[in-house]
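Our preliminary data section would be incomplete without showing what the modeling component actually yields. Below, a chain of 524 amino acids is followed by its predicted structure, encoded as tokens that our downstream tools consume directly.
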Amino acid sequence: MASRKTGLILGVALAGVAAAAMAGSGARWAPQDASAATHPLQLTHVSTAGMFAPPPDAPLSFADIFQKVSPAVVSINVTERVNVSRGIHVPGLPFNVVPNTPPGGDDGDDDSDGDNSGGGGADHSGTTKAEASGSGFFISPDGYIVTNNHVVEHAEDIKVVLTDKRELPAKVVGRDEATDLAVIKVQGAGFPFVDFENSAKPRVGDWVIAIGNPFGLGGTATAGIVSAYGRDIGDNFVDFIQIDAPINRGNSGGPTFDVYGRVIGVNSAIFSPSGGSVGIGFAIPSNVADQITKQLISGGKITRGYLGATIQNVTPDLAESMGLGKDYKGALVADLVPGGPAQKAGLLPGDVVLDLNGHSVGSSTELTRLVAQSQNGQIMHVKVLRDGKTQVLDVRSGTRPSETQLAQQENGGDDQAGPDDSPAGKHSSTLGMMLGALDNDTRGKLGVPETVHGAVVLGVKGASDAGEKGLKAGDIIVMAGETQVSSPADVAQAAAAAKKEGRSAIRLGVRRDGHTLFLPIKLG
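Predicted structure:
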């Protein structure tokens, strides 16, 4: 590894020397025509008149800013216990957890990729210690540090390394899975700290600086620009800032600064096919981070309202399949949590939520955020569209479970396998699918409870719209248009009625893995 690195650095240095020599001579290579191909290239002098100059407020160097703010940025090293069989996988996030190699073992990694593997061993419980690193920054002189939740979520031991190389133990003050933010604290006073900037923010194209601990290399600065605002990367409560300042493994939880040294974001995620930086990073905006961290410091926990429903966006295709027009906006209720607030209040799968407490709803994200603002026990007035008519339902808000609990709910459900053979009862071929009755025999094979009614998909033509939308054997059609399905004939009749009304598609409620999703299927 040493020889390869030396060669790389030397090659870059030599290229820099050549470029510097050219620049110092005030010369450039002059293009030659084909007839001069056999002659040496000639050097011509270049006038410096009219050359592009940076605007007066553009920094010539980030050194002063780095010197000012870097003492407040820390490296965070955590030790956690993981299951040997699975380890920890955090897809899409710039943070790596590598199980330690058991004594006498060989993990096949020469550690040249920057992973922070330690030297502990597996114990008799089937777990092993793992070490990982992240970043953070002081927000107060008395030791409060902001970082990402996924950096410290499973930590048994946390060590904070300051720029002066001091290593201090830290404790978790509070975590919020939904925004991926956490606050930890070290003992002491007089720590250098930085503030969140909420009154002004850089424009798209303005400079930003990220400081952190990539690959365990603490005190690293990278620079870039704000690439975009309001990025939705699957998070319900954060509109991320997209930046192109390189963010790598270990940068998680570190600050993004503007050119004045103000914190405008917390580095949290990257988009990367390879796991390394490709110039697309995402930071949690400072106003969100400021609000959440203050709540964590004051109470240690964030609570949000809860509807108890799986919701999805009303896409143009879905809206057209419901006869609403492609520009219709709203959030579609796909499924209900048994015994949850929505089910108790009478919401039904297929309802379209248009308004909550007087605030119009244009997407599933908007509905989630509006619900989250409610308090446990508060009445929410939910305006829905059902069967072409609007009505208002009063829903008593619950308390939103943790993201881990919600993920467990999403991962639970029915067996994914399709039926081994055609079930007894009536069959129907419609919309490119062969449908069968959902009888007791099929329920047993699919693990479907008696409370679920519908028609089971036995097969799908690959060239059909249903096939292109991903329907497969074992799926259960529980709703077609506005009709609750109890047999294959119900689907065929609903499709015929939709076609008679002049619609080009029909909305199908498809149950899979214990959850329902609505899809628009063309009526060709």
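Residues 2-25 form the longest helix (24 residues). The first strand starts at residue 27 and ends at 29. Preliminary results of this kind motivate Aim 1 of the renewal.
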